[in-house]
Specification:
Blueprint (H helix, E strand, L loop, with lengths): L5 H76 L5 H81 L5 H14 L4 E5 L2 E2 L8 H8 L4 E2 L6 E4 L4
Parallel strand pairs: 1-4
Antiparallel strand pairs: 1-2, 3-4
Bound molecules: zinc ion (ZN).
Length: 235
Amino acid sequence: MPPRNNGVKQLHRLHLQLKEVQDQLDRGPRQLKARQQIAIQKQETLEAAKQANKAAKMAVDQKNLQLKSCETKLSDHKGKLNSASSNREYDALRKEIDADTMAMSVLEDEIIAALEKVDVSQIAIKKVEAELTAAQAEEAKFTANVAAAEAPLRAKMAELEIAVAAAETCLPAEAANYYQRLVQKYGAEALAQVDGNICSACYVALPPQLLVQLNGGQITFCKTCGRLVYPAADE
Ligand SMILES: [Zn+2]
């Protein structure tokens, strides 16, 4: 008759496998969310770039209007120059014309700068559009991968749950309830091996009496941390 706690090591191995499958199931949606977040950020960056482009274009239009009004003023002042009735009036008009010319030159420089801003923002839009497309493609690919992985993982989990239930039959009825509470609380960490005389969950030595019980094949719980323990080398 093999020792009763022979099955505990196997039970722990199954719990660990179950945890790994559960972790994989949890990881997929989490990683997917991160990719969705990237796509959302790119979308926001694109909106901002479009706004900047719109503002730059409006600035160009405004400056062009100002330039037009300056041109009108200039030709108006030039037209009046020939009919000036006095030197004083003539000089005043010449000053206006100089001021108009200066204002137009400043506006022309500003228009060039504003047009450069339009170009830069258009390049930014193209770049972010490409990044958004790539992020959306990555998201779609990842969504498909997660969906494809889910069914096999769920099947594996169901399989392992059955194996765990079968392995649990090594536990005597009086220990079963306590064990179930342990599993609810700690999951796979509800079980721990004992290396030499040290519990690998709490790193405290088992009292000699408990060690004798453990090595004699009895179902044993660590006195310090309460874990279901089993000898490290029992095969
Ligand atoms: Zn312990």
